[in-house]
Amino acid sequence: MPIATIATLQFDVEAVTIWPFGPQMFVCSKPINSVADPQNMNWRRFTASMSETLTELGARSVPLSILKLYPALEREVTSCSVTSPISANAGKRPEATEFPIPLSGSVQAHLLNLGWWRC
Predict the structure, then answer these.
(1) pTM for this one?
(2) Could you tell me the pLDDT band of residue 32, with boundaries at 50, 70 and 90?
(3) Are the C-beta atoms of 60 and 2 separated by less than 8 Å?
(4) What confidence tier does 6 reach under pLDDT thresholds 50, 70, 90?
(5) Rounded alpha-carbon distances, angstroms, from residue 3 to 11, 14, 32, 97
(6) Where would I find the beta strands (DSSP E) of the chain?
(7) Which is nearest to 113 in space by CA: 6, 7, 3?
């Protein structure tokens, strides 16, 4: 059964758009060898759920715009970032970091609440 059909049946929503978000990775200026390593490190994040995940790992979540990330990495204001390979390369992250770690890929969607739509 297609994902959109499952969403419609279970949550009473309709998928308006679905697209791949692409791979995400950690780019760090310090090595990450275990789950304990992120503790007490500053991490740039861009979503609330990412902030919660980093906090659960013991890391400090730092809200930084993508434009301020390179200088923050250079000045060691932050040690790591969660980003896509394209953003990392475009923002010259390889110049300020040495340890890319593949993380995940995902799918995003815009969903329409059918209860609201029917009103």
Answers:
(1) 0.61
(2) confident
(3) no
(4) low
(5) 12, 10, 35, 38
(6) 13-20, 24-28, 42-45, 60-63, 80-83, 99-104, 107-113
(7) 7
